Amino acid sequence: MAKIISGTKIAADIKNEIKQEVAELERTKGVKPGLSVILVGDNPASKVYVANKQKGCAEVGFISEEIKMPDTATTSDVLKEIDKLNKRADIHGILVQLPLPAQINKNDVLEAILPEKDVDGFHPVNMGRLVAQQECLVPATPSGIIELLKREGITIKGANATMVGHSEIVGKPCTLLLLNEWATVSICHIETRDLKMHTKDADIVIVAAGVPYLIKEDMVKQGATVIDVGINRITADKASPELLEWRKADFDVKGATLIGDVDYQKVEPKAGFITPVPGGVGPMTIAMLLSNTIKAAKRLSK
Ligand code: GUN
Q1: Which of 118, 120, 261, 263 is catalytic?
Q2: Is pTM beyond 0.90 here?
Q3: How far is ligand 1, taken at its centre, from the CA of residue 270, in Å?
Q4: HSE of 293, CA atoms in CB hemisphere, 13 A
Q5: Is there an atom of ligand 1 within 6 Å of 118 CB?
Q6: Homologous superfamily, domain 140-282
Q7: Rounded CA gap, 55 and 64, in Å?
Q8: pLDDT (tens digit per residue) in 168-221
Q9: Is 53 one of the catalytic residues?
Q10: Domain spans in the chain, listed from the N-terminal domain onward
């Protein structure tokens, strides 16, 4: 039986720590951290994510605002908003919720954010600083993963870690963070020929592929740490009989449930540590976004 890592609990601890830092910053500098979130269009999932980010800000005592733009907005419209936010002294963090409508040039938008206010850590300057091991803002989900490992006392130094997924948001930065902590890292992706070969001997397996049931029990070592970044919504008509029974309460109320990329019920008995979905990596993403924002606010008000 694995130790189940509660991201919910650890995220709550981090938020409490941030609350204290906010009080300290207000007391010593008279500064309250401010986060501005730009949401273009009305993607329903993005709306939920943005609302959760605002809620997180309120919990720790940040000022937060949402800038809503229509889905017909142009790159130039978004750049104008970013320019205003870059210049505002009361805003320390700027985040543009992704995905953006097709007509908008994502790279131009991300590069327009002042790197010191880029609390998502998606600006090429922050990515480059991460590669160079310089002080920078690091994407929230991967830094949340490292935080979970550290706070659970899981040894990263010298460990064999396998990262499944190579996205700019999770896989690539997570790989660099693990490497900076002296893990030996393999990176797998959709063109990887034999995924099991890379996961079966790993001490730490991190999965961010967006494929339910990708990781089965024969693919992980006894006692391994398994971190599941996947968020897959499964409706009742697509669910297996086992899932229908395990998540009966969700199906009864919502007609759907959320699962990760790991076949949790089969892998959990074999793992040493495992993150659940929901309640594992998910809550850490917001906690680390808040952590980046207080970090930015402190640096900008030095
Ligand atoms: N869309 C999905 N994940 C993220 C994230 O971490 N930040 C932003 N801005 N958009 C996202």
Answers
A1: 120
A2: yes
A3: 32
A4: 34
A5: no
A6: NAD(P)-binding Rossmann-like Domain (3.40.50.720)
A7: 9
A8: 999 999 999 999 999 999 999 999 999 999 999 999 999 999 999 999 999 999
A9: yes
A10: 29-116, 140-282
